[in-house]
Every structure is written in structure tokens, then in C-alpha cells.
Amino acid sequence: MEKVGFLGPKGSFTEAAAKALVPSNERVPFRSIPDTMDAVSEGKVDHAMVPMENAIEGSVNITLDYFIHHQRMNMAAEIVAPIEQHLLVSNQNLTSWDEVKKVYSHPQAIAQCHQFLRKYLPEAEISYVNSTAAAAKYIQENPDESAAAIANNIAADAYGLKIAQRKINDYENNRTRFLLLTKGDKPFSNKLISEETTYKTSMMISLPSDFSGALHQVLSAFSWRKMNLTKIESRPTKTGLGNYFFIIDVAMKRDNVLIPSVCEELEALGCGVQVLGSYPCFSWEELQNIGEKVVETKST
Ligand SMILES: O=C(O)C(=O)C[C@]1(C(=O)O)C=C[C@@H](O)C=C1
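^ Prephenate dehydratase, sequence as received from the core. Prediction below:
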């Protein structure tokens, strides 16, 4: 059985994403996102499921930076999942949830609920932990502490906690984009892929030097080919202030014409270009539907 690593412990959003995309894989928890990625290169697991980007908070920088600077792998598949954050407490704190002195969660989750915290728990101390599930586990282990966790309903069930307040994320359509990373170029192939499956190709581009119109030239190489970009992100190269590279996601599968020719044009401009991966993209909702269809077909 193949193994997929995720940011644990059990009950994290990343585990839910792994379960939806590769349900037949054995799920192995790790303490951090870098540990999860290292586990792939060390051969402890076959894949790593990692969060890449959130609708409210933007990129998950630790994932992107660790991927670029320390652990390059194949981007094998994407899943976009809805994220509902709840305020979880032990039984003891249920009626007095608005008086808790401390709120534990992952920095991304805290950031998604800033307005809620400012409004209802302005005095509470924020304590950042490794994951939302780690926060829920902590509350289970310390039920008498005047504290709450921000985590999902799976964690509430897993750690026997009460949902004091539901859907506390500040904006409605909260979603996180997760990537399944693998070693080597083996394409993601399973029965989820159909004619309608859309693909993305992620590229890393560095500019030759800081001259006027450099980024404009890069973008026009994509634009005149009518290549649709779904994301452009700049991250520091970590070599000095003002030095950046760009991650560009193109809404297409790696082909033999457009992708090679855009790379050639960019290289001719003096840019560094690397294709990081080309992968099928799924939404949580479509995977649930496919799951149901598979069950239906089996039972008839
Ligand atoms: O803490 C978790 O449960 C995670 O899986 C991590 C993570 C993230 O880093 O973005 C995943 C999804 C949510 O956006 C919040 C937290």
C-alpha cells in the first residue's frame, strides 16, 4: 500500500485533503510541513500532501520556500478544499467560551479568524502551534485550562471537544489549495482523471536583472500565446533585499509546443526558467461526487 505523509496529528485539514485525493493510501502524520516533505525524499512515504495557498491568507510561504530552496519534488496533483474553522473547547469551557484566556491554533488558521478574535476574544492570548489538529489535541489533554482551539469538525470529533462557535473564519468562501508531491516524474494516474479534468503547469522564473519592463516582457511571452495564468507570486530569493523570483501557474497541461516555446523565449530574454510540475486539478466537491458514483456503480 502506498503511503502519504501529512501535517499531523490526525484531524488536520491536510489529512482531510489527503483522504479525499488518495483515499487508498496509508496516511502518516508528521510534525511539520518540511518534515512531511523530507519524508518523501528519505523514502518514508511515497507522497506528501501539503497546503499551498489559502483564499483568505494567500500563499503558505513555508511550503513554497521549503519546496524551492530545500526539497524539489514533482507536483503530482492539486485538490482545493473548503475550510471551515470552528472554535473548539472542552466541556468545562462550553458555556464560558467567550472568557477563555488563550486560543491555540496554526498561524494560517489564526489569520483566517482575526476579526472573530478581535470581536469576541480581544483579551485572549494567541498561542501558535504546529497545526489546527495539534491545537485540538492540546485542549483534549488540558481540559481544565481556560483555553480554546481553532480547528475543524473532524478534530472536534477525534479529540472529544465541543464546537462553541461554528464557521468563525472572517470570510465566507474559505478554501485552501493543497498539492500532492511525489519523488520522480511519475504522473498522477488514477480513475479520478477524466476528459474534463483541468491541468496546471507551475513555473519558476527569475529575472536577469532589475531593468524597467522586465516583468512586462515575461508576462507578454505568455499573453501573446494566449496562455492563461491562474497565479503569479513573487518570493524573495533570500540572497539580498530586493531580489525576487516568480512562481507562475499556467492553466494548461505541459505540452510539446506552447510550454517549450515560452521557456525558450524567456531564456532568450535572459531569464532563468524551470518547470516545477504539471498536474491535474480537483475540487473537494467533485471528488465527493466521484466517490459516490464509484460506490453506486459497485453496489449495482
Ligand atoms: O493546521 C492544519 O490543519 C493544516 O492542515 C494546515 C493548514 C495550512 O497550513 O494552511 C491547512 C489548511 C488551513 O488553511 C489551515 C491550516
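The radius of gyration is 21 Å.
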